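User: Predict structure, ligand FE2/S2 (inorganic) cluster.
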Amino acid sequence: MTQAPEFDEAAADALIRAEIAAARAFYGEDAHGATALLPVLHALQARFGCVAPQALPLVAQSLNLSQADVRGVVSFYHDFREAPAGPHLLQFCRAEACQARGCERIAAHLERAHGLGAGETRSGITREDVYCLGNCALGPAALVGGRLLANLDEAAVDALIAGLKGSGP
Ligand code: FES
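Assistant: Predicted complex:
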């Protein structure tokens, strides 16, 4: 995974304007400012690795929304991050089927043994909790670097974390 660039206000502003123009081209000039909100947030995260807190006033002003509206959407959707992820992203499933197969025990182990609570980054590894990876029958499941992992237990998680730490950024 490549390192995301630092937040840059001018670049963010240009990105936001481009997304608003694209939304207007698709939905028409009358589209409400909120119509472009999700595309704008996705574009910012794709460019900077997160929706940085500094971007919120810019987004709100550009779309004629309140900062509270924008902050509410960013915090509601688990996919949006307020800080860039580490070089290794561990997406760990906490949805119902994986709960039935023991993911809560593994989540506690990740936190206790590796200091990786939900949303935390340690040693270049970011744990992001997600809700179903489509691998329900083989949970607990996780996705790391595009690789789907199944039947996770404490030993498998220990080996995974050791491997990621040893592989560098
Ligand atoms: S509930 Fe975990 S993969 Fe579906």
